[in-house]
Amino acid sequence: MSGGGAEHVARNNIECFVNDSDIELAILTCDASATKMFNLKIFIAKDFRSIKGVFSKGIGSMYMGYNYRVVRECLTRFKPDIIHMHDYIPFSPSILKAFSEYKVRSLCKIILTHHTFSFLCTNDSLFNYSTSKLCEKCIGKFDKTIIKENCYNNYIGSIVKYLQKNRIMYFMSNLIDIHVAPSYFMKNMLLKVNNKYKVKVVYNPCIKNNFQLPHNKKENKIVYFGRISKEKNILRIAELFDSSCSGTMQLLIIGNGDQSGELRKIVDNAINRKMIIFKNEFLSTEKLYEEIIDAKYLILPSVWYENSPVSIVEAISLGIVPIVSNIGGMKELVDYFKFGYCFNPYDDKSFVEIINNISRDNFIHPRPDNKVLMKLNLFTNKQYQKDIISIYNN
Known about the structure:
alpha/beta, Rossmann fold, 6-stranded parallel beta sheet, 4-stranded parallel beta sheet, 16 helices, 41% helix
């Protein structure tokens, strides 16, 4: 469960039920640190991605006997009525083999919440890393597109993903009873795979119950927090900000990733180094909020779709205006709240126009009104718990 946004959301989902006396809960995870986070029955498997050696890792991605045995032990000892999956890739297809066998024996129900695009795309992303373009060619088919076009940007990796995904879908056949989508964008994508799927939209919980909008003073600051990687497009935004933004607006970037070194060079060579600040680290939620709460704007410039990024909702709850790419779950959230700005991530002028506009001295920084705040209630822990229990009961 450690890792990026999907893992962060999965932890939030679990926390909604930790103190629920009506539900007996056990956790099956590849993250040993979960034993410190939750006072629950926890079964620890291994993440195949941590295996050393290309050949051994490739074998592990297809099947891990150890994980199969751990999953079987969990199911035998706990005997769940409902299995709620939040991720399955780190376990390898061995987890699905154990689930499918248990389902035949027990007639349990299996729910899958889609935090990523793994179920839809052989490359897990609906994004071709070789061409840096969106791609929907293999939705639901897991054909050889990933090999022909080297979508993973590594031929060996592309082949391994192709083999792994077809192994996964062998066990996935008729395994899932209910699909949970955190966005209507994801729901529509799932229905492209099979229009007979039962898909429920349940928004991710990322707002505390009875939250209050902070009334702190806002600074002329734009923040980005998250992975520093190609699909997030933050390097290009830093370059554009440096070359185009005038005035007192500042860009604060918080995060880490495989492009951190390249971003550091851009920041160090910036025309005005004081206007771009890069903190190369991931922060806890509490510390992150302390860093960004005085910002006026959030930038989320991804060139891939995103699913239902909680960063947008968290920003709005802090009185921060989102500026996001006009694609996927990002556009859906801004349209839903009717609060924020969208730009074309493939058109530099589109971003520069928004930055120049909000940088004007006479521009009035908007604040969330009552209609926006009411919509935030759908993203509380309480609402998520209510929606998921409704699915469990049915």
